[in-house]
Structures are given as C-alpha cells and as structure tokens.
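Repro:
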Amino acid sequence: MIRDRCGDNARPTCLRADARRPRPFAATIGAVDDYEFRQLSLPRGTSRGAARRLLTQAAEYHGWELARLRLFPDGSRHVVLRRRILRVARTL
C-alpha cells in the first residue's frame, strides 16, 4: 500500500512538502511572451475519440499544440493549447 506521507509502507523515495508543489505554469513551458494560450473544458460525457478529433483539428487547421491536459476523476478534461506568436520584423 502506498501512502502520501513518509513513514512505514511509504514510497521508496520520500518527498519533502516543498518538492510536491507544482512549478509555475509559465516556468514549465518557456517564456509566456512567445506563445498565446487557449483553455478548453471538455465535459465528462466527451468520448476519448471526440476529444482527440477536436484537438487534431485545432492542431492541423489553426496551428495549436497541446501544452497541458488534465483528466479529472469525474471524467472531465481541462485542456491548455498553445501556439507560437509570430513577430514580423519591420523591413523599412
């Protein structure tokens, strides 16, 4: 049996409390200024195939890529898509 806290029958490597804290979202994917983000919430009734089709279309036709996907115990999904912001240099 695996328990979250350190002690008997705990995980082989015991984590400190500060090591469990997630890193800031911007630090995990790079500079925020280089990307634009879009957040989607898919309800729990959405099938895996329908979610895949939705994300595939966003990638193929609109240039989005998957930055983060969270699947919750109730079956709902929270998706964060990102795409690079193209900065055009002035020519004059």
